[in-house]
Design goal:
The structure holds 2 protein chains of 2 kinds. In chain A, 71% of the residues lie in helices and 0% in strands. In chain A, α7 packs across α8. Chain A is built from 14 helices and no strands. Chain A is flat, with a radius of gyration of 24 Å. The C terminus of chain A is likely disordered. By secondary structure, chain B is mainly alpha-helical. The longest helix of chain B is centred in the middle third of the chain and has 37 residues. Chain B is elongated and about 75 Å long. In chain B, 50% of the residues are buried. The interface between A and B is large, with 68 and 63 residues.
């Protein structure tokens, strides 16, 4: 903190710029989702009326058009929607007529539980693999451990979930195969959700650990007589973990979108189920609400990490002119890439 | 050495500013990587990737997958839709390699015949992603200035929405079906392709041979197509192979969720989904098609990595 206090003005400006940027991304996400969901379909009214439903008279279609403001030019619709969203109104679900905010709101708690546990599992598992692989002296063990993450990225999570059910619900009845009653029902879904993410974390962290272990200050630590475990955990890990932190937003986004499959496989209520159902029923307002919610979660997580980062890494030089240029260690300049390759 | 390098595929995405320095680094890397070994040895002629057993196995598996997609009858002469009800829910055996489903249909035949649907969907997805992404990346990197800034902010927004959710939104708008799923998955990958190509174009743009080409009176478009694009496309190829694996995962997840081709079609994801009701009695119905998906994705990822280190060694 002390490093920052002389430059409090810079910090304030940095925070303000980052906030403005976050808002800009949210607005752009709204625009994008509007373009996809309202401008792309040849006939949004038919979509709203329930896909290929043909038993609706032209008069009814016109009435629907008026009700949803679809008789207006596209840019008027765009502004009307934007005004609604700014006042916290995401519209109403087509299939149930309930406010989208309510539908999403009540789906958040079960998903937060699931994603929260999955996040813990993913970090422990991913970091465990990465640390063990670099710490061990056995070449064979290291090779084996480093072969796991590519495997975790390649395995389809819907399949993993079903195999886990087969083994740990049917063969050995340890956990329930479905539902959301109690902690035991949370275990298998959380593992299913965590595996791809943990693989990405393991890949990122082992790479970063390898780079860090090659730095001169590690040689100093060795020279001062620090043991293998101490060098790895105390000296290298703390610095190597920083780049992994920058992808927190992607990790959370990945977990959130992963719930669509996981909650379907385990028949759990939550954001994922709501999403799967909304797409099934082509419930445009709900889908848009979910996309905006996901973008907001991503933006807020990234914002929080960016704001915390200078506190964790005093080497960072804040510059409000171009906040994207916040200098991090060169090793992490491209950190998000491994996760992008594993969006599912 | 090569293993460590291969673990760092995102070096390609190195930020624009340092491209000149990076190019020099890469040259040094390449020299170091070849080390003291004779650079002109005949082993140079066989791509390094092929000499690695895992990469070779990946190529072999992907070749089988492509054959299954193009000529399924070669690998499985049976009928994927017709079955003998008396033979239903048979465990894997020599007669039925992957067992049979509840209607007595041979699962192996269904998986082989489903390859075309899943693989062509993944191929369409990659094509959409690579073509659109490359156009954006090329224009962004080459034109620069405000165009670049706007296009890259659009890419940022695309990356802020998780890929699967973006695909789902597009499917909501376009409707269900294999082709729509493929397009949706492709669009979700546009941003990463655009970013990679852009940073490569930025690197190549100021290379001496581009200036020479320009100075000898070639038009911008010609320079772009004849000199810049060929020299910056390699990382995109690596990414495309990787995206192929990702696309297979995404397409099968979406068809598992029921947004792909309607039921009797043996799409890989739909096959796994179809076995859900028989989880307790017939493990093979979910396990084996899922395994085929996993191995295919693994092979694509492995090949992508092999190509990556190959391309790096050649520089």
């Amino acid at each position: 903190m002390s490093a920052l206090s002389p430059a409090r003005g810079v910090l304030a400006r940095y925070v303000a710029t980052r906030l403005a940027q976050a808002l800009l991304v949210l607005w752009a996400a709204y625009t994008l989702s509007f373009l996809v969901l309202y401008a792309l379909p040849s006939d949004p009214v038919a979509l709203l009326a329930g896909g290929d439903a043909t038993d609706i008279s032209p008069e009814q279609l016109d009435a629907l058009r008026q009700r949803y403001g679809l008789d207006q030019p596209l840019w008027v619709q765009y502004l009307l929607h934007l005004r609604g969203i700014l006042s916290g109104d995401l519209g109403a679900s087509i299939s149930t007529g309930r406010p989208v905010v309510e539908v999403i709101g009540e789906a958040i708690p079960p998903t937060a539980q699931l994603a929260g546990l999955a996040l813990i599992v993913a970090v422990l598992l991913g970091a465990g693999i990465a640390i063990a692989a670099t710490l061990t002296r056995s070449r064979r063990l290291s090779t084996f451990l480093l072969a796991l993450p590519p495997l975790g990225v390649a395995v389809p999570s819907f399949w993993l979930g079903l195999v886990l059910i087969q083994w740990f619900s049917f063969q050995i009845p340890l956990f329930p195969a479905m539902g959301d009653k109690g902690f035991t029902a949370l275990v298998l879904p959380a593992i299913t959700l965590a595996v791809p993410t943990s693989a990405a974390i393991a890949q990122l962290l082992s790479k970063s650990l390898t780079t860090t272990l090659g730095e001169p200050y590690i040689d100093t630590a060795w020279a001062k007589g620090a043991g293998r475990v101490r060098v790895h955990l105390r000296h290298a890990l703390r610095n190597a973990a920083l780049p992994a932190l920058t992808v927190t937003g992607l990790v959370v986004g990945q977990l959130l979108s992963g719930t669509v499959v996981t909650e379907t496989v385990f028949s759990r209520p939550g954001i994922g189920r709501v999403t799967a159902l909304a797409v099934q029923q082509q419930d445009v307002p709900v889908v848009q609400g979910i996309v905006l919610f996901a973008a907001a979660v991503f933006v807020l997580t990234t914002l929080a990490v960016d704001l915390l980062y200078p506190l964790l890494d005093p080497r960072i030089v804040l510059s409000s002119a171009s906040p994207r240029r916040v200098r991090r260690r060169p090793a992490d300049a491209t950190a998000p890439a491994p996760l992008e390759t594993a969006v599912l | 050495m090569s293993e460590t390098v291969a673990l760092v595929p995102d070096r390609w995405e190195q930020s624009s500013d340092a491209f000149a320095a990076t190019a020099v680094d890469r040259f040094d890397d390449a020299v170091v990587a070849r080390g003291s070994g004779s650079t002109a040895s005949p082993s140079r002629r066989i791509p390094a990737a092929l000499r690695r057993p895992l990469v070779a196995a990946s190529i072999l598996w992907l070749a089988v997958v492509v054959i299954a997609a193009l000529w399924p009858a070669l690998l499985a002469p049976g009928d994927p839709l017709g079955g003998t009800p008396a033979d239903n829910l048979q465990a894997p055996s020599l007669a039925h390699l992957f067992g049979t489903d509840q209607l007595g249909r041979d699962l192996y035949t269904r998986v082989v015949h489903g390859t075309a649907l899943t693989v062509s969907a993944a191929a369409i997805a990659v094509a959409v992603g690579v073509v659109v992404g490359s156009l954006i990346g090329l224009v962004s990197g080459f034109v620069g200035g405000r165009t670049d800034a706007v296009l890259m902010r659009v890419a940022d927004v695309l990356l802020a929405i998780p890929g699967l959710l973006l695909s789902l939104a597009i499917i909501t708008a376009l409707g269900f079906g294999t082709v729509n799923v493929a397009i949706a998955v492709g669009i979700a990958s546009v941003a990463s392709v655009a970013r990679v190509l852009r940073s490569e174009v930025l690197r190549v743009r100021t290379a001496p041979y581009v200036e020479v080409a320009r100075a000898s009176g070639n038009g911008w478009i010609a320079v772009l197509l004849r000199h810049v694009l060929p020299n910056s496309i390699a990382p995109v190829v690596v990414l495309a192979v990787l995206e192929f694996g990702t696309a297979i995962l995404a397409v099968s997840a979406l068809s598992f969720l029921g947004y792909g081709a309607p039921p009797p079609a043996p799409e890989w994801g739909a096959l796994v989904s179809g076995g859900r009701d028989y989880l307790r009695t017939a493990w093979w119905l979910t396990a084996l098609p899922g395994l085929v998906i996993a191995v295919t994705v693994l092979a694509a990822n492995r090949l992508s990595r092999g190509l990556d280190s190959e391309g790096r060694a050649r520089r």
